[in-house]
Amino acid sequence: xxxxxxxxxxxxxxxxxxxxxxxxxxxxxxxxxxxxxxxxxxxxxxxxxxxxxxxxxxxxxxxxxxxxxxxxxxxxxxxxxxxxxxxxxxxxxxxxxxxxxxxxxxxxxxxxxxxxxxxxxxxxxxxxxxxxxxxxxxxxxxxxxxxxxxxxxxxxxxxxxxxxxxxxxxxxxxxxxxxxxxxxxxxxxxxxxxxxxxxxxxxxxxxxxxxxxxxxxxxxxxxxxxxxxxxxxxxxxxxxxxxxxxxxxxxxxxxxxxxxxxxxxxxxxxxxxxxxxxxxxxxxxxxxxxxxxxxxxxxxxxxxxxxxxxxxxxxxxxxxxxxxxxxxxxxxxxxxxxxxxxxxxxxxxxxxxxxxxxxxxxxxxxxxxxxxxxxxxxxxxxxxxxxxxxxxxxxxxxxxxxxxxxxxxxxxxxxxxxxxxxxxxxxxxxxxxxxxxxxxxxxxxxxxxxxxxxxxxx
Length: 458
Known about the structure:
52% helix; alpha+beta; single chain; Heat Shock Protein 90
């Protein structure tokens, strides 16, 4: 495309740009004979012929009367008049040929200017059409026109599951399903009757996909302002509608999870208060458990509540002891992602195990070791199950607790009930052993853990 859109003549006809920049070149009126010149020339010819006729009549009379000398003079005069008339005719003929040549040159110049203007207009119109098409493609707007019978006369791109050429010449009744046809047809008829712009949102079934459009319809008018049809613009808002649907679902889910979270916090507070010997001990335990819950929620929020990897859950619940991974703590497991509800309860159980190990178990001494492993056990006869184990060794001798506190309830009963699983807890003198088994339904389907979670002895 030419970038000289401001110069109508274009770069290839720059010398003549001034002649066509503001319209066609004006005619050179000096190249055309005036009416007075034409009348003068005709008068000269008429008078010349009249003089010749008069001299010829006079010559005939003189010859008839026998006046030969005067007849010879008349013949001579007639010859002189003929010569003068011929000279005048030659002069005027040359003049008129010159005027015609000038007129032809002016007309040729005007035709060349008009051709340049037409060529420039054609290029400009082509550029504008290309820009218009590019703008429509970039904006995602579909523009169309329909006549008074609601037959499509033009459309900017494919729509309704049909190609452009398949739409032109057809009506909505031929293109749209019955249940989508009536409201849009009524709206278009109303626009043609009232002459007012209308806007609406409608869904259209395109194959197996339902798409939403924001539709604007205006009356199309002819040269005398009569309504000849409609012109419309349709914007695909399917993504926006889906986003709004997701927001509504998230709001309902958020409300549900908030209620559950408040119930969990209330249970933690109640159980922590029941087993605490003082208000200071209650605040310490309650704050630590809330922090554990917050860590689990941070993971879930970061992954948009699609679940969390087991590695991230374990590391987040080790808290201050995560720097012991690789020395006193060994982690080993295959890629595994668990659902949000499972992640929350597993996190609470791991927090209680880590707190107990730091106070009374293997993490209370430098020689103690903790092994945390997870896997999915294959099952041929029984359904496959997930296994998460916590094994301590090298710490102080283990004794079975004399009372059941909140932590014991969480690692024995709460997590097992929440995950429809089974917990095996062994207070062996050499070290506490805890095993959780739960169904694979609590794993995220087709959601393998990121590569960073595929590790051993990390």
